[in-house]
């Protein structure tokens, strides 16, 4: 899936690739080059959470919109129970169930949980190399798999590994897995995407009448 690579790269931007040993990164480089040409769009995702034994705990449909470089929106659940929105005025986490929201600064502790969304989107492997170590890559049929380890010790404490799955023939993003220190994991399956040349800014300006502000 070509479009959601944006969000994916936005998620990956704090952790890039340093080639300490020979690893086939050609499919990854091709994918990054294509994503650099995509500016706006909408993506459908299935977000799955697994426990430390690899058992599925939850599965939620999600939608995301991106308008580089300032705007991002991620709706989780159906009906939506949580939203993560970034616009030029700031970064916001909205709890639709509790009718509350929180505005985060880049320096706040909670924002670190979503720190990847703050980053600019890398458009080549050199940019990624600043943050990631490529541990290994492999291919089974058309599926290319690359395992990344954060160079940041702070991020590595919570997310030691990230695994990216690409369709090598179609140059599409299939899934990303975030493996946590406690052995649990989060897997995002990218289902469909479409380019939207004109996304309204109102999409990134939530209506919060009646919502409580969390400190």
UniProtKB/TrEMBL annotation:
Q: Which CDD domains match?
A: LolA
- Leader sequence segment: 1-20
InterPro entries from the entry? LolA/LolB/LppX, OM_lipoprot_carrier_LolA-like
User: The organism sits in which domain of life?
Assistant: Bacteria
Q: Kindly indicate whether the keyword Disulfide bond belongs to this entry.
A: no
Does the UniProt entry include the keyword Signal? yes
The UniProt keywords, alphabetically, are: Lipoprotein, Signal
Protein name per UniProt:
Outer membrane lipoprotein carrier protein LolA
Q: Which organism is it from?
A: Persicirhabdus sediminis
């Amino acid at each position: 899936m070509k479009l959601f690579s944006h969000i994916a790269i936005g998620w990956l931007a704090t952790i890039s690739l340093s080639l300490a040993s020979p690893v086939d990164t050609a499919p990854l480089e091709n994918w990054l080059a294509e994503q650099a040409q995509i500016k706006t769009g909408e993506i459908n995702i299935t977000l799955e959470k697994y426990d430390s034994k690899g058992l599925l705990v939850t599965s939620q449909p999600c939608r995301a919109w991106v308008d580089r470089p300032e705007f991002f929106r991620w709706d989780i659940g159906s009906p939506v129970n949580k939203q993560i929105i970034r616009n030029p005025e700031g970064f916001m986490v909205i709890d639709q169930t509790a009718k509350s929201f929180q505005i985060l600064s880049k320096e706040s502790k909670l924002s670190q949980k979503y720190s990847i969304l703050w980053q600019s989107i890398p458009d080549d492997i050199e940019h990624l190399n600043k943050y990631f170590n490529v541990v290994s890559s492999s291919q089974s049929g058309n599926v290319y798999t690359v395992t990344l380890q954060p160079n940041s010790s702070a991020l590595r404490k919570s997310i030691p590994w990230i695994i990216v799955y690409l369709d090598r023939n179609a140059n599409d993003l299939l899934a990303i897995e975030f493996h946590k220190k406690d052995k649990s994991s989060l897997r995002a399956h990218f289902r469909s995407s479409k380019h939207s040349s004109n996304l309204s800014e109102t999409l990134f300006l939530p209506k919060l009448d009646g919502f409580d502000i969390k400190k």
